[in-house]
Design brief:
mainly beta, 6-stranded antiparallel beta sheet
């Protein structure tokens, strides 16, 4: 069963979809030498306190394989057709289970290598435990993809400048923070972002418990096969 690992948000697609047959292939070299790898739709494993998901959840998906050398070093090979709609959200998940107000800190370091083609975003996906609120932090994006909802503000929070969007996917509130320029590495201080949502804007209660902090690649198209590599990822909070 997919349950919590499914990405339930649908990004706005900013260009018409074009039908293109996807070539089914196998993962490239890094996967074959990894500690763990799988091309199964809902494959997952736990390494070093992080849970890795292949997570091919969208309709019309092609083939995809996720590999990992550790919970913090992993990657994805994906060959999804050049059509609209999110196909997958391969990710590494760290469980926090603390309320916004009780969190002393919540920080993350990321370092990725991503393709210059295709349509995707590299993002954090942060959930409360009862899935009423979803907070997305896009550190980079390429191609015809966009967030749910409408633009609210441009803010400087957690060490980055963001364009903020607010909307709903029909199941939960979605707050999307899109970095104003693409980044392949950096540190995000998530706690000030949560405080801004809860206490500056009042869009969610400070008593809300943050459950999972996910980081991964939300892929709409990667025709021909593209590699997404997480060179390093750490999430720490308490």
């Amino acid at each position: 069963m997919a349950k919590k690992l499914i990405r339930r948000t649908t990004m706005a697609v900013l260009a018409p979809a074009m039908a293109l047959g996807a070539t089914v292939g196998l993962a490239s070299a890094p996967a074959s030498a990894a500690v763990w790898n799988s091309c199964d739709q809902w494959a997952s494993t736990t390494l070093d306190g992080y849970k890795l998901y292949n997570n091919i959840w969208g309709s019309g998906a092609g083939s995809q394989c996720t590999w990992a050398n550790s919970g913090t070093t992993w990657g994805v090979w994906a060959n999804h057709p050049n059509t609209g709609g999110i196909k997958s959200y391969a990710n590494s998940t760290k469980t926090i289970n603390k309320s916004i107000d009780s969190l002393g800190r919540l920080t993350s370091n990321y370092n990725v290598s991503v393709p210059s083609s295709g349509a995707y975003n590299t993002s954090y996906d942060i959930w409360d435990t009862d899935h009423q609120y979803e907070i997305m932090l896009w550190v980079n994006h390429t191609g015809a993809v966009g967030p749910i909802g409408s633009w609210q503000a441009t803010v400087s929070l957690g060490g980055h400048n963001w364009n903020v969007y607010k909307g709903t996917n029909g199941s939960n509130q979605v707050f999307s923070f899109l970095r104003t320029s693409n980044s392949s590495s950096g540190t995000v201080d998530v706690k000030p972002i949560l405080n801004w949502l809860a206490h500056t804007k009042g869009w969610m209660p400070g008593s809300e418990t943050i459950g999972d902090v996910q980081f991964g690649y939300e892929i709409t198209s990667s025709s021909g096969g593209l590699n997404f590599t997480t060179n390093n990822l750490t999430v720490s909070g308490g």
